[in-house]
Amino acid sequence: MLLLPERVEDYVGADNPVRFVDAFVDGMDLQSAGFTRVQAEVTGRPGYHPADLLKLYIYGYLNRVRSSRRLEVECYRNIEVIWLLRHLKPDFKTIADFRRDNRAAFKQVFREFVVLCRKLDLFGRELLAVDGTRIKAVNAKDKNFTKTGLTKAIKEADERLDAYLKQMDESDSIDKASRSGDHGSDGGGDVADKDEKLKAKQDRHKSLLKQMHETGESQISLNDPDSRYQSGKVKAGVCYNAQIAVDCKHKLIVEQDVCTQVGDLGLLAKTPEPARALLDVETIDVVADRGYFKIEDIEACEAANIIPHVPKPQRGPAVREGFFAKDAFRYDAEADHYICPEDQRLSPLYKSKSRDNIKIDYCNRAACRACDLRPRCTKTFRRVSRLENEAVLDRMAERLVARPELMDDRRNSVEHPFGTIKQWMNQGAFLMRWLENVRAEFSRTTLAYNIRRALTLVGVTGLMAALQA
Ligand code: SF4
Fold this sequence. Notes:
This protein has 469 residues and is an alpha+beta fold. Among the domains are: 8-101, no CATH class; 142-221; 317-396, no CATH class. 48% of the residues lie in helices and 16% in strands. The protein contains 17 helices and 13 strands. It has helices at 17-26, 30-33, 50-62, 68-77, 79-84, 92-101, 106-119, 147-181, 188-215, 272-279, 295-303, 317-320, 365-369, 374-377, 391-402, 406-424, 435-468; strands at residues 127-136, 144-146, 219-221, 228-231, 236-247, 252-259, 284-287, 306-309, 330-332, 337-339, 345-354, 357-363, 383-387. Helix 11 (295-303) links the parallel strand 7 (284-287) and strand 8. Helix 8 packs antiparallel against helix 9. The longest helix has 35 residues, at 147-181. The radius of gyration is 30 Å and the shape is flat. Iron/sulfur cluster binds next to helix 13 and helix 14.
């Protein structure tokens, strides 16, 4: 005999996170967040209210259920969902349509929760760690084409077509000989078949290459046209670039975005700028890895009251050849010269334009000629280049020297969200295609991460109290 409680309410305890999801969505102004159908049409039957479907999605992402079909199933068998939706049972099409029609609004939901966490004083509001990760798109590797890959494939197909032609010629002559000697054919038809297929494939590749030249794109993805082939330290794939800005106090995500850019260069200010506004602070420190090092971005950050801390990557011809890196040369701003490892002065000699900047080369030919360190420094005489606006990098280098612990803080702060999202939440691949859909998906993922984190920090009671404050 089973003596189950008679009310659904009795299954959902006071500290059940589903109660927070319910109260959080009920407290939101969905119309101004951008959700459609908040007011039912005057004519016809009223549809599902967006609040119910939003609750379902937040609950689903919190519990690793993301697909519309699986969410539909949960509406029938999951007592928490039955409580949350008050026995409503939308079908998967309704659930999926809601997701498609409101994709721009999910970011606002994410931001509403950030504001709630700010009320709870869960942000340090002093240091943001910025990082990006590649998240797999709905596009297989063999459905992605780059210019280099296509050119190579077309060339290889030409070579194979030549080989088939030769093979067919040989098979023709064997045929002739066999007819006279009464032997069978050796299957020249197979080769002709392969030849046809290869030609068709090559034509497809040629038309894709033509399309790339016409549009100026460097890649084409067939299943999800917005996704890009990106290679990383461990493996490569067709992915999106997901960026986050994490507050270092409790590793909560303050801002996030997804883009199609390969690599992080140029994205330093992308998430910290809105994050600073959300945290409502005048200035904020930002730490990122070497992949973000770009003088224009560092200048832009300083102009936007964001204090960047990005270590300088060791690159350039001198480093490649094993000579002293530029760090070994000290710049004297007052005298405008560099002091080299041999304590010699390198003075400004040449000025040139480098992209949008003016580049000045410093050198001292006479000193290099007589220098014992020359084999470790240069082949002829050493030039050290400096951009006209490089003072911004000097300021940043001084800040990094003063706070060496920042790089550890960065790693500890950004690895937690990415690790949790990919491993624990099992969201290392997107379910949706197209950039706008993927952005909405990542907003739901990061919202779920933040809710989980806040639940660990203050519990359901703390979150409920903040809602009522
Ligand atoms: S080679 Fe020239 S720049 Fe290099 S350490 Fe010697 S003097 Fe200085």
